[in-house]
Amino acid sequence: MIKIYGKPGCGKCNAAKEKLKLLGLDFESCNLAEYIVWHENWRNDESVAVLAFYAFHNNHMPIISIDGELYEYAGAMKVLKGK
Q1: Interatomic CA distance for residues 78 and 57, integer angstroms
Q2: CB 16: neighbour CB atoms within 10 A?
Q3: What's the CATH number where 68 sits?
Q4: Average confidence score pLDDT of the chain
Q5: CA-to-CA distance for 74 and 8, rounded, in angstroms?
Q6: What ranges in 1-83 are assigned the alpha helix state H?
Q7: Which residues form the domain of 76?
Q8: In the chain, what's the furthest Cα-to-Cα distance?
Q9: Dihedral angle of Cα 35, 41, 44, 47, to the nearest 10 degrees
Q10: What is the pLDDT of residue 35?
Q11: Three-state SS at 74
Q12: What is the arithmetic mean of pLDDT over 70-81?
């Protein structure tokens, strides 16, 4: 499963989504803002990992989750092209 965590109107996030579409890959688009603030389901939905990854990578977007493993855009593309 592939998830893209980004913000509405983010050019890099939109480019990542378009690239996944061109590769014929299904993905879920997630609003990053919903995962980096406290919310009821934070223990069960990757929120802690997404927040840590976002902070560690200087707030760069998008964050791409591939089978539960988080990547920045370039790293995700390397993994996906290898599949």
Answers
A1: 18
A2: 22
A3: 3.40.30.10
A4: 90
A5: 20
A6: 11-22, 47-56, 73-81
A7: 2-81
A8: 36
A9: 10
A10: 79
A11: helix
A12: 93
Evaluate the CA torsion angle 30, 33, 34, 37 in order and state its sign.
Answer: positive
Give the Cβ contact number of residue 74 at 10 Å: 8
How many distinct structural domains can be found in the chain?
1
Which tokens is 37 given? 């603030």
SS3 content of the chain, % helix, strand, coil (to 5): 40, 20, 40
- The dihedral built from the CA positions of residue 72, 76, 79 and 81, taken in this order, carries a sign that is negative
Residues whose CB is less than 8 angstroms from the CB of residue 10 and which lie 6 or more positions away in sequence, other chains included: 61, 62
3-class DSSP state of 66: strand
pLDDT tens digits along 32-61: 988 777 778 777 778 888 988 999 998 889
Neighbouring-strand partners of residue 52: none
- The pTM for the full model equals 0.86
